[in-house]
Design brief:
Shape: globular
Number of strands: 5
CATH superfamily: Response regulator
CATH architecture: 3-Layer(aba) Sandwich
CATH topology: Rossmann fold
Radius of gyration: 14 Å
Distance between the termini: 18 Å
Largest sheet: 5 strands, parallel
Helix content: 40-55%
Strand content: 15-25%
Number of helices: 5
């Protein structure tokens, strides 16, 4: 059944949000800001990292509190799958969503083999983002 999240953006209690942090990495500034606003509007704490180094620093600083990573597959200056593997060394239970405009069947296979839970198409639809994040966080 489809839930219309648009009517619930101001009601965070509807989601029973845990205060685990979501990290956005490698997203374009406009898209990252839109995702952050959407997620924060329903009670998710969100941070944005502009680089792999910044993401690693946040992982060390927050000592396991970052439980979900949303990463752009075409992150500038790095390989998203290598970054995911490195961050999982800091937090082996890290859940990952990859955002991409387009991926080949081979890339899709590599993404899922790396342990990514979900692949979402860019530009990211707000309703889809909320549905996917809600499902993953509440597993």
């Amino acid at each position: 059944m489809f839930t219309d999240y648009r009517t619930k953006l101001t009601e965070p209690r509807q989601f029973h949000i845990r205060k685990e942090i979501i990290l956005l990495l490698g997203t374009d500034p406009e898209g990252g800001t839109a995702m952050r606003r959407t997620l924060e509007a329903v009670g998710f704490p969100v941070m944005i990292a502009d680089s792999c180094e910044q993401a690693a620093g946040l992982f060390r600083s927050f000592n396991g509190a970052i439980r979900l990573l949303i990463i752009d597959i075409t992150i500038p200056g790095g390989d998203a799958l290598e970054i995911i593997a490195a961050l999982r060394k800091c937090n082996p239970t890290l859940k990952v969503i990859v955002a991409s405009k387009d991926v080949s069947p081979r890339e899709r296979h590599e993404i899922y083999v790396s342990g990514v839970i979900e692949l979402i198409r860019k530009p990211v639809d707000k309703e889809q983002l909320l549905q996917v994040v809600h499902r993953i966080v509440h597993k």
